[in-house]
Design brief:
It contains 20 helices and 2 strands. The longest helix is centred in the middle third of the chain and has 33 residues, at about 160-190. The chain is about 75% helix and about 5% strand. Strands 1-2 form a two-stranded antiparallel ribbon. The protein is mainly α. Helix 2 (about 30-55) packs antiparallel against helix 3 (about 80-105), helix 10 (about 255-270) packs parallel to helix 13 and helix 16 runs antiparallel to helix 18.
Amino acid sequence: MNAWPSETLVLLALSLPALGAVGIAIASRIPNLREAVTLTVAAANFVVVMTLLTRVLDGERPAAGGWEVFGGIEIAFLVEPFGMLFACVAATLWIVNSIYSIGYMRANDEPRQTPFYMCFAVAIAAAIGIAFSGNLLTLFLFYEVLTVSTYPLVTHKGTDEAMAKGRIYLLLLMATSMMLLLPAIIWTWVAAGTVSFAPGGILASAGLPVGAVAVLLALYIFGIGKAAVMPVHFWLPAAMVAPTPVSALLHAVAVVKAGVFTVVKVVVYVFGVDFLATSGAGDWLTYVAGFTVVTASVIALRQDNLKKRLAYSTISQLSYVVLATAILTPISIIGAVMHIAAHAVSKITLFFAAGSIYTAAHLTEVSQLDGIGRRMPWTMGAFAIGALSMIGVPPTAGFLSKWFMLSGGMAAENWVAVGVIFVSTSLNASYFLPIVYRAFFRTPPAPATGHEAHGEGPFPVVLALTITAFTTLAMFFFPDIPFALAEALVGQEVTK
C-alpha cells in the first residue's frame, strides 16, 4: 500500500466506509458475517488512514477531487495535518466502537442492528470527508451528510421519546447549518472570492470592516451547531436517548468532533489567527466559550442520570477547544488540537463504562452506583482514568491539552480564559470524583435490589473500554504524533 498514489489513498479512505455500509446490508441476514464485514472494513480503513499519516508527517499534503460544481468552486480534498488528526481519531475509534457495539447490541438484544451498523459506517465516511475537505463547500456537504446519517441512530429505539428527541437533534442541527453556516460560507465567497482553505486565512485581504468580521465569525460559531456552544447545545442532551454506542459516536468519534474541528479550521484557515488577533474581531468569543464551559459544568453537577452528566460534561469540554482557539496564540491552538484527541479517547471510555454498567446492572443513575466498583473493577477503573483525564490530572491525555491551553492563556495575558480553565477544572472534579468515590468506597446496596447478581459487562464491552482507557494513559507518555500534527497546523515549533 505504501506504493499506492496518495490520491488513490485519499479516495479509498473516503469510500471504504460507504462500501462497508453496502457490505453490511448484503450480510444482514447473517449477524456474524455482518459484524465481520464491519470489523474488516474498519480495519482496512485504519490501514489506509495510517498510511496517509506517514506521508503527512513526512511533509506531503495529499489531494484528490477537483470536480467543479459552479463558479469555479470544486468538490476538493486536501489532507493537511489537522484534518489528518481528525481522520486518525475517527478511523481508530471506529474499530474500538465496533468491538464494543457487538457486545452491547447483542447483550441488550437491540432491534434493527443492521441499519445501526450501516448508518455508523456512513457517519464515519462523512467524518473523514469533513477531515479531508479542501474547501468550505466540500466540508458543508459532508457536514450535512453526517447530520442526516446519525439521525436514524439517535432515533434507533423507535419509541415516542426517541422520535421526539430525534426531531430536536435533526431540526436544531439542520436549522443552524442552513440558516447560519451556509450564509456565512456564501458571504465568505463573495468577500474573498474563494472558499478554499489556506494557511493564514483568506479574509485578511477581503477589506471587511471589523464589525462585519465579528458578525461573520458569529455566523460560523453558532452555525456550527455540532460544536454545541450555548445556546445551540440542546440537541446534545436530547440525543442521549440513543443507545450507548451511538452516544459514543456522537461524543467521541464523529459528531461533536466534527463541530469543534470545523470551528478551529475556520479560525485558522478562513479568518487567520493573526488577522483575528490584530483586528480584535474575535475578542467576544472568549466570553461565549467561557460561559459555556462554566455553565455546562454547573448543570452537569445537578444531573443524577449518568449519561446526561456526561452529555453536559461534553458541552463544557467542547468549549475548552473553542476557548483555546479564541486565545489566538500558537500554543493555545496546539492545546485545542490536542484536546480534540484527548477528549475523544477519554470521553469514549466514560460512555463505554456507562453502557457496561447499564448492560450488566441495568443502572442509569449516579445515585445507584454505590459499591459497583467492587463488582465491576475493570469498568469503573477505566471510568476513573477517563474522569481524571477530563479533570486534567497527570498521567492522562487531558493534562497535556489543558497545560497548553493554560500556557497560551498566560502568554496572551488572557486572564478570563485562565480563570475559566481553573474554575471549570474544579467543577470537573466536583462532578466526576464523587462517582468514583461512590463506586469504590461506598457500601454496596442490600441484596434485595439484585445489585449483587452481576459482574462485568460482556467481554467485547470490557475489552473496548480497556483499550480506550489504556490509550488515554498512553497519550500522556507518547504524545508525539498529535503534537507534531498540531505544530504543523500552527506552522511553528513549540517546546513541550
